[in-house]
Design a protein that fits this description.
Strand content: 15-25%
Helix content: 40-55%
Structural class: alpha/beta
Number of helices: 12
């Protein structure tokens, strides 16, 4: 809502939620002129340009098709849907309607990630050898700790909701990747959670990647490490900092100088982010993506995320979640590309 309010020539015309109280309170809080509990009714009564769907993932397919077939452009939160079959249905509806469809891969558009990808594309990293994405959460994380949350009913459970983020980050760095290993573990005490630790190893040609998700961390953090033939990038998406480590001689003096360079880079990143926030020029990933999507709709610009990229994320998500559910249902610990391994 905050982002839409910032964009020129955009007017929020209606809000819809199947819970009437939520729809009513949202409309009142944001001064929205109309609210509904049924999407079909809302689409019938109004002529919209864009419908922004912020509902649980398993509802995306039906709602997106409804909105597309009514002639609206559609914006979806990540992921597009949970399965490739649903993705194909949504993409077919978009093609039939001649409308535009966007999927918000917001972390790609965080300022620090935009900068890192720009440096990588300029060749500062050299040839990428490995990329590692780590999502660290405490056991008090709101979705995990809520026994009734809808995420637990997804394929892959809580992991199914969060996995699109590390998947699309890795795909932006490595391209489409094959799953080599999926491993889970449980450390916490929530009885409704079969696993709260996930490790996924992936590979593509001469490059490799990994995803690690934990709900037992003492701190919240999202960290991306990318290793290349020229340098190493450490990208902290939580602290909005980036550190580049270049080749250096193997001696104590070089190590000390390297440490000072890292301190300087951390301080520079922090000051840059603080300056942007204080000046009111800060744009988070959601805002940057949504502005790009509006440009795509109104001015025929390139889409911020292509449908093929969104589809590739769904395809990898579906394959990983199937392996997670297989491991859980068979009482295993991990599943490789070739075999399952008993606990």
């Amino acid at each position: 809502m905050r982002v839409w309010r910032k964009i020129d020539n955009v007017h929020i015309a209606a809000a819809c939620d199947r819970n009437e109280q939520i729809a009513k309170e949202t409309a009142k809080a944001w001064n929205i002129p109309a609210h509904y509990t049924d999407l079909a009714e809302m689409l019938q009564r109004h002529s919209f340009s864009i419908v922004d769907i912020c509902t649980p993932t398993h509802t995306h397919c039906k709602l997106a098709i409804q909105a597309l077939e009514s002639g609206c452009h559609v914006l979806l939160e990540k992921p597009m849907v949970m399965t490739t079959n649903e993705a194909e249905q949504v993409m077919s509806a978009r093609k039939r309607s001649g409308t535009k469809l966007g999927v918000i891969h917001n972390m790609l558009f965080e300022p620090v990630m935009i900068k890192a990808l720009s440096l990588i594309r300029k060749g500062n990293l050299g040839q990428i050898i490995n990329a590692d994405v780590r999502f660290l959460h405490t056991n008090e994380e709101p979705m995990l700790s809520n026994r009734s949350h809808w995420c637990h009913s997804l394929q892959g459970g809580r992991f199914g909701e969060i996995l699109p983020h590390p998947i699309y980050l890795l795909q932006a760095l490595l391209g489409q990747i094959d799953i080599e290993l999926v491993s889970i573990a449980k450390i916490g005490d929530y009885p409704w959670i079969p696993a709260d630790e996930l490790f996924v190893a992936l590979g593509r040609n001469k490059t490799s990647g990994s995803i690690y998700i934990s709900f037992n961390s003492p701190v919240e953090a999202v960290i991306v490490s990318v290793y290349g033939t020229k340098s190493v990038f450490r990208i902290d998406l939580t602290g909005e900092t980036i550190v580049q480590l270049k080749h250096r001689p193997f001696n104590r003096l070089s190590k000390g100088i390297d440490n000072l360079r890292q301190i300087y880079q951390l301080a520079s990143s922090t000051l840059r982010a603080t300056s942007l926030i204080l000046s009111g020029k800060w744009s988070n990933g959601h805002e940057t993506y949504i502005r790009g999507f509006v440009d795509y709709v109104l001015n025929e610009k390139d889409p911020p995320v292509t449908l093929q990229e969104a589809y590739n994320t769904v395809e990898t998500l579906e394959r990983i979640c199937k392996k997670i559910d297989f491991i859980v249902s068979h009482g295993l610990r991990e599943c490789t590309k070739f075999e399952a391994v008993e606990t």
